[in-house]
Design brief:
The chain has 540 residues and is α/β, with parallel strands linked by helices. 37% of the residues lie in helices and 16% in strands. The protein has 17 helices and 16 strands. A 7-stranded mixed beta sheet has the order 10-12-11-13-14-15-16, sandwiched between helices. A 5-stranded antiparallel beta sheet has the order 5-6-7-8-9. 56% of the residues are buried. About 21% of the residues have low confidence.
């Protein structure tokens, strides 16, 4: 099937080409297969250099082929819709490139958050007056706010609603202050202060992470389709499934719907190498912190040496009793400054309530987990693995999933904050899903040059699967990752395992990896439940 400007050709060896022809006759040819994240691009110089065009055209090709192969109606409708949207964006950008002039303006781009050149378009063929960002390839237009010289993203067609830049949409607090730092993490709110009024309240930050209906993705590369493949691969999928899984999570929407929202948690940051110290990182951090009303970093005490950040997981997320957690830190770092991280109270409370409402610990965990797993299995049976974006509604019924998504988001937000502090290194301590937060934060920081180093991590009862590529975690610390696990942790043995389709938690059986910086400690002899770690474990 072909559109007016895009044509797909498949070959017996599995290779696919997608040809994009502009109104003036310019030609771009993309070559790869369904497992290809970045296709080989040849043809017109302008078209090859435009990242938004390349990635949208390739996304069209993938969804078109998935549409042809799909059997279920829901799958076909989903792929048809996404193929058509990406084709429209690619075709529109191709036509804009016909009308590029030598006139340009240097301004901040709301598509990639970079101050760069924007070349002017005169709509002789496309019928559109716009600019094209030299960095991300997005179509841009001057911000509609009075006396603002930043560029807003725009579609490739006509529009009636005024377009505002990322500052005036409150996508980011500030372009200029994106690299500002604060003395310590307790001052993080200073980084989130908006410079400009919100003139476009209809623009939702959580929806800004995908290319859809002609709007350009923030992210420095306007490459949601390509990043989707990278994310899917990091999540353990292969081939076309990887791209679809990644894209689903990129645009997964609200936490309650099981999506990773704006930037897809740690997967996106690791996949695209997003500069957390820059405007993109500020946008990601701002998004995640603002949507979690319980997020807070409290400086508990001053001290000497490397600071410790400690957080907890569900079962004690709303408790004012931090005694066991602080005593755990004191036993290892008696003189260190301590920061308490609060997060995700809504998701954690919902998970705890479902598991323990009117039940014993073990039986409650089993019952709740089976309910959660059943919701996920219904979706999987209905759709198969190639259309996970359609699973979101059912995943909302999985409290483990939504809480883990929140943990991933919190870890990314914490990394973004730590990157912009003046403290060179930290120790991280986390329990349960709080352990997941700390692992995500460390792995995210490891992708950033010049970011603060994590000296040591202590995780207890870690609610994260033991299987995975732990290379980035191993390299994320200067010292060690100490993982304290208990085979008598019934919440992880039953609740986590059933809800996660049989996955074994690192907090139940250890990571079992040969990486030298990751050390497992079996504390089954002194911990007989999910809440017993902080009080009974002697940290290394």
């Amino acid at each position: 099937m072909a559109t007016n400007s895009l044509k797909i050709t498949t070959f017996p060896d599995g290779t696919t080409t997608c040809a994009v022809r502009s109104l003036a006759g310019r030609l771009l040819v993309l070559t790869g297969d369904l497992a290809t994240i970045e296709p080989i691009a040849t043809g017109d110089e302008r078209m090859v250099a435009n990242k938004a065009l390349v990635h949208n055209a390739w996304a069209y090709a993938k969804h078109e082929l998935e549409y042809r192969a799909a059997v279920e109606d829901d799958q076909r409708k989903s792929h048809r819709k996404q193929a058509d949207e990406h084709a429209a964006v690619a075709g529109g950008i191709a036509d804009l490139l016909d009308d590029l002039t030598d006139e340009s303006a240097t301004a901040w781009c709301s598509g990639c958050f970079i101050r760069t050149e924007h070349r002017k378009v005169r709509g002789k063929r496309s019928g559109v007056r716009a600019h094209v960002c030299a960095s991300c390839g997005a179509a841009t237009v001057g911000c509609a706010a009075p006396q603002c010289d930043h560029m807003a993203t725009r579609g490739t067609g006509s529009f009636r609603i005024p377009r505002y830049c990322a500052e005036h949409r409150h996508d980011i607090p500030s372009f200029e202050r994106a690299t500002d730092t604060v003395e310590g993490p307790e001052d993080y709110e200073k980084l989130l202060k908006y410079d400009k009024p919100n003139l476009s309240r209809a623009t939702k930050l959580a929806a800004a992470g995908i290319l859809a209906a002609g709007m350009a993705v923030p992210g420095g590369i306007a490459a949601a389709p390509a990043v989707g493949g990278a994310i899917g691969a990091m999540m353990g999928y292969g081939g076309a499934v990887a791209a679809n899984v990644g894209l689903a999570f990129l645009g997964g929407g609200a936490v309650a719907a099981g999506g990773l929202g704006m930037a897809g948690g740690a997967y996106v940051v690791a996949a695209v190498g997003a500069a957390l110290g820059g405007a993109l990182g500020a946008g990601i951090t701002n998004a995640y912190v603002r949507e979690d009303k319980s997020f807070d970093i409290e400086k508990f005490r001053d001290g000497v040496g490397t600071p410790v950040i400690v957080t907890r997981g569900f079962l004690n997320e709303s408790s004012a009793d931090w005694r066991a957690a602080v005593e755990f830190v004191d036993r290892r770092y008696p003189d260190a400054p301590i920061y308490k991280l609060n997060w995700g109270s809504k998701e954690l409370a919902a998970l705890g309530a479902l598991i323990f409402k009117g039940m014993g610990v073990r039986h409650g965990a089993v019952a709740a987990a089976r309910m959660a797993a059943k919701a996920s299995k219904r979706a999987a049976v209905k759709l198969g693995p190639v259309a996970p974006v359609m699973i979101a509604a059912d995943m909302a019924k999985n409290p483990w999933h939504t809480a883990m998504v929140r943990a991933d988001r919190t870890g990314v937000a914490l990394a973004g904050i730590l990157t912009r502090t003046e403290i060179p290194s930290y120790h991280l301590v986390g329990h349960s899903l709080g352990a997941r937060v700390m692992i995500t934060a460390a792995r995210t920081l490891a992708t950033q040059k010049g970011a603060p180093r994590i000296d040591t991590i202590h995780v207890v009862g870690a609610a994260i699967g033991r299987k995975g590529d732990w290379r980035t975690l191993n390299s994320a610390v200067s010292n060690k990752v100490h993982n304290y696990f208990s085979e008598r942790d019934w919440v992880l043995r039953y609740g986590y395992a059933v809800a996660q389709g049989g996955s074994v938690a690192a907090g139940l059986a250890g990571f079992g990896t040969s990486y030298p910086n990751i050390v497992d400690h079996d504390v089954s002899h002194c911990v007989d439940g999910h809440s017993g770690y902080f009080a009974n474990v002697e940290p290394e």
